[in-house]
Specification:
It is found in: Cell inner membrane. This is Heme exporter protein D. One of its GO terms (biological process) is heme transport. Belongs to the CcmD/CycX/HelD family. It is built from one helix and no strands. By secondary structure, the protein is mainly alpha-helical.
Length: 51
């Protein structure tokens, strides 16, 4: 009996999970950048004034 299916399955799950986490991180980063760009265009929370 070979253990190859279990090893291949474990590697497949690991690579799939890593890809899913990477895509989720890239999506969160792009959303955060667009939100930051919107805030900067409005002048920030303080209306562009420094305290």
């Amino acid at each position: 009996m070979t253990h190859l299916p279990y090893i291949a399955g474990a590697y497949g799950l690991t690579l799939g999970l890593a890809a899913w986490l990477s895509m989720a991180a890239m999506l969160r980063l792009s959303r955060a950048r667009s939100r930051l760009r919107a805030v900067e265009q409005r002048g920030g929370r303080m209306g562009g004034r420094r305290p």
